[in-house]
Amino acid sequence: MPTWLIVLIVVVAVAVLGAVIWLVTQEMQRKRLQQRFGPEYDRTVAEKDSPRAAQRELAERERRHKELDIRPLSASARERYAREWAQVQEKFVDQPSAAVAEADQVLNSLMAERGYPTEGYEQQVADLSVRHAKTLENYRAAHATQQKRDGASTEDLRDAMVRYRTVFEDLLTDGADDDERHDHHDRRNGHDHSGHDRTEQHATERRDTEERATERRDTGRDDTERHETDRHETERQASANPRTEWNGGR
User: Fold this and answer.
1) End-to-end alpha carbon distance in the chain
2) Which of 67, 109, 162, 238 is the least crowded, having the fewest Cβ atoms under 10 Å away?
3) How far is CA 156 from CA 145, 149, 160, 247, in A?
4) Sign of torsion, CA 191 173 112 136?
5) 127-171 tens-digit pLDDT
6) Do residues 170 and 134 touch, judged by C-beta distance below 8 A?
7) How crowded is residue 176: how many other Cβ atoms within 10 Å of its Cβ?
């Protein structure tokens, strides 16, 4: 086989292998971005000229996000924001439009304290999409209602509050450990497990005491039965072997 033919075959093989690797890499990138961004991936693809352009956009969001100093809230900060949100919800009863505007402000304050820039709505959305893509559509819808709140119906404003709350809780608990998440969820729903835990502890202690007492009674019964059995066995043996009185050796 001529040398030039061998070289040609090697070049073609390398090119084919490179193309396969490139396609596999692109497919892995697509799946990774789809998994991370969820519906935001499809939205970005629809807005861009091609899937490649959308993937570049989302990859750029990830790169920017890594440069941000995103940090979890302290326990005291979470409690403070939870109280602020409760006040906003109470305000909604009498002033729904003002409450929605205040909810937007509280959410922006929360974003800033977490380390998200708040200089513009579009950039906010892009930054949030990296870690909060699942609740991002709620933020978009609520923000749209907030922008036209004076002309929005009470039902629209109520829907915006619910959506804002979804985003609020996502940002509030992101980065907290599981126990803190559960504590926040229980307090938000008016559940206090401290009394329940004490009741459970007392019940457990009472069960342990009863079990120990039962064990002692059972042990006592077992000892009594063993003594009674030994006594009967002794009497039986005595009856089977009549006693010979000592007669002084005669």
Assistant:
1) 129
2) 67
3) 7, 9, 6, 117
4) negative
5) 999 999 999 999 999 999 998 877 889 999 999 999 999 999 999
6) yes
7) 17
Mean pLDDT of 4-25: 79
Would you call 151 exposed, middle or buried from its count of C-beta atoms within 10 A (0-12, 13-18, 19+)?
Answer: exposed
Give one DSSP letter per residue of 51-108, joined into a string: HHHHHHHHHHHHHHHHHS---PPPHHHHHHHHHHHHHHHHHHTT-HHHHHHHHHHHHH
Tokens of residue 55, six digits: 């993937």
**3-class secondary structure, 226:** helix
Encoded tokens for 39: 């519906």
Residue 69 backbone phi and psi in degrees, to 5: -95, 70
Taking the mean position of all CA atoms in its chain, how far away is CA 51? 31
Residue 216 pLDDT exceeds 50: no
DSSP state of 5: H
What is the C-alpha separation between 37 and 39, in angstroms, rounded? Answer: 6
Q: Looking at residue 176, what is its pLDDT?
A: 55
Q: pTM for the whole thing?
A: 0.62
Q: Are 61 and 127 in contact (CB under 8 A)?
A: yes
CA-to-CA distance for 64 and 116, rounded, in angstroms? 11
- CA 237 to chain centroid, in Å, comes to 74
Residue 15's identity, in one-letter code, is A
Alpha-carbon torsion 59, 168, 80, 189, what sign? Answer: negative
